[in-house]
Amino acid sequence: MFRLNLEKSAEQQDVQNFHRQRKLIKKDRTALGANARLVSRCDIVIHQGISEVRCQLPLIIEDAENGLTSLSRKLFSELLDELRLLDKRLKQCEQ
Questions:
Q1: Is 3 helix (H, G, I), strand (E, B) or coil?
Q2: Model confidence over 36-91: pLDDT tens digits?
Q3: How far does CA 2 lie from the centroid of its chain?
Q4: In angstroms, what is the C-alpha Rg of the chain?
């Protein structure tokens, strides 16, 4: 059952919900970055930080000489797509 908190105005609740959503998106994006680093092979290094993951994933996917299997390449592509979606959602929240 959904009930409004009568001690807070609807606007205050909206702001609180917004901050919770934004926090969740950032948490998901951080976890995705960590997952990308864990999925990487020993000879492919993805440095820490979401901006590094965002920068390095496309290069790893496109590098035909890095020895990735087609499945690994597909997994990295899916991670990159999800990262871009989370970035978009976070940008929408910040607007």
A1: coil
A2: 776 665 577 788 888 888 998 899 889 888 888 888 889 889 989 999 999 999 88
A3: 29
A4: 18
Q: Give the HSE-up count for residue 1: Cα atoms under 13 Å, Cβ half-sphere.
A: 2
Query: What's the rounded Cα separation, in Å, for the pair 1 and 88?
Result: 31
Q: Residues 9-35: pLDDT tens digits? A: 778 888 888 888 889 899 998 888 887
82: nearest Cα among 28, 46, 44 = 28
CA–CA distance, 5 with 93 (Å, rounded to integer)? 23
CA 80 to chain centre: 8
Q: How many CB atoms are located within 10 Å of the residue 4 CB?
A: 9
What is d(CA 90, CA 82) in angstroms, rounded to the nearest whole number?
Answer: 12
Q: How many CB atoms lie within 10 A of CB 74?
A: 12
Longest Cα–Cα distance of the chain, Å, equals: 61
Where exactly are the structural domains of the chain?
10-94
